[in-house]
Design brief:
Shape of chain A: globular
Radius of gyration of chain B: 13 Å
Largest sheet of chain B: 3 strands, antiparallel
Strand content of chain A: 35-45%
Order of helices and strands of chain B: EEEEHEHHE
Radius of gyration of chain A: 19 Å
Number of strands of chain A: 17
Oligomer: heterodimer
CATH class of chain B: Alpha Beta
Largest interface: A-B, 21 and 19 residues
Helix content of chain A: 25-40%
Strand order of the largest sheet of chain B: 5-1-6
Number of domains of chain B: 1
Distance between the termini of chain B: 30 Å
Distance between the termini of chain A: 54 Å
Number of helices of chain A: 6
Helix content of chain B: 25-40%
CATH architecture of the largest domain in chain A: Alpha-Beta Complex
Structural class of chain A: alpha+beta
CATH topology of chain B: Outer Surface Protein A, domain 3
């Protein structure tokens, strides 16, 4: 699919290498810089070719992901894409805007992940004591605040979109899930580290006068989780798979409500939760 | 007065968990949870059994609810879910789109 004049870079997020190619040299250097910490030499599992068109503003329209036979059609005001899952190739027509590029990549990953029992979650995440903690919630709940308050020994995975996959079936982590760093930055404007860790807990954030960690009933946990998963595909089979994954995730990962007062003491409570979970 | 028949849409995914039914619409990714009574109606929505009979046999007898109130609540519930494309509603028996 890639023409001889194209230049390509392989970007590996969440253990899934994707080749990005374009004939536009400016766009190529943009994507190389944007995904600098995630470039790899692995054999790509999917190839995207970008056809760069005249600049248009980033759209606030809802993205639509629909089936056209075996292909996925992805459309928003600022980009169009056709993805062929059988050939593992796709063509994207967009302007050179990096936010459009991020969106296309996130959508592709959300489709690939859904088939593999994973998902993208509106959540910040970091590694503390070798295990990943996720912080989700509505806009303004404190996702970015948690990353700003993180002590220096916390490894930032993302302040915006957490990348979650089932653990490989090895050793003691066989039944859990793993969080990976992503280059998708939010308000912090800082990409996550390209690393991963087994997930210790998912906290749904609420701001309050003091720090408090509380249990959430199972059904409520699934409800909150589903509301924060990035999923766009109008496809019954993938929707079924995603709901099944969410129920499995809730059964395997501790999910709590974390009411917190925005100060660094909140991370002490997170550490204590990690310790008590292992006692 | 004509009967109402209800059937579950094939464009949804559903899972029973901790006494509640979780439903996700694949068309617009909207997500719903149904309580015990609503779940009983949902599970009985086979497209062939009239809604009034579902309410009488599955709701009033099981949950000891006044029938007139239960019938009114069921109509409202059905209207709401059909508005979201999750239930199909007709005054004639329907072919069941999906069995879950």
């Amino acid at each position: 699919m890639s023409s001889p004049s194209n230049r390509s870079a392989c970007v590996e997020i969440g253990g899934i290498p994707i080749s990005l190619s374009t004939a536009d040299p400016v766009f190529f250097s943009l994507l190389q810089k944007r995904y600098e910490g995630f470039l790899c030499d692995s054999r790509p599992e999917f190839e995207l070719e970008f056809d760069i068109v005249e600049p248009r503003s980033v759209s606030d329209d809802d993205v639509r992901v629909t089936r056209d036979g075996p292909d996925w059609l992805v459309a928003r005001g600022d980009f169009r894409a056709r993805l062929d899952p059988s050939q593992k190739k796709g063509i994207v027509r967009q302007n050179a805007n990096p936010f459009s590029l991020d969106s296309v990549l996130r959508i592709l990953h959300s489709l690939l992940l859904a088939e593999r029992g994973g998902f993208l979650l509106h959540a910040s995440s970091g590694i503390c004591g070798g295990r990943a903690f996720l912080f989700s919630g509505v806009s303004g709940a404190g996702k970015t605040t948690m990353t700003r308050l993180a002590p220096s020994d916390i490894t930032l995975l993302t302040d915006e979109i957490s990348y979650i996959r089932p653990n490989e079936l090895t050793g003691t982590e066989a039944s859990g899930y793993r969080a990976f760093g992503t280059p998708f930055a939010g308000e912090l404007a800082k990409p996550g580290q390209n690393t991963s860790a087994s997930i210790a807990a998912l906290f749904f954030l609420e701001k309050g006068p003091e720090n408090r960690i509380e249990e959430i009933p199972t059904a409520e946990a699934v409800r909150r989780l589903m509301r924060n998963i990035l999923f766009f595909a109008e496809d019954p089979a993938l929707t079924e798979k995603l709901l099944s994954t969410a129920c499995d995730f809730v059964s395997r990962v501790p999910i709590r409500r974390l009411t917190f007062y925005p100060s660094s003491t909140v991370w002490e409570d997170v550490r204590r939760f990690e310790v008590s979970a292992h006692v | 007065m004509s009967e109402t028949y209800i059937a579950r849409s094939s464009s949804i995914a559903a899972r029973a968990l901790a006494g509640e039914m979780m439903i996700m619409n694949s068309v617009d990714s909207t997500f719903f949870t149904l309580n015990e009574v609503a779940t009983a109606i949902w599970q009985a929505a086979d497209g062939r059994t009239p809604l009034s009979e579902i309410v009488r046999t599955r709701i009033c007898e099981t949950f000891e609810i006044d029938e007139a109130k239960a019938q009114a609540d069921a109509q409202q519930f059905v209207a709401e879910l059909s508005g979201h494309g999750i239930l199909l509603v007709s005054d004639q028996p329907l072919a069941q789109e999906a069995t879950r």
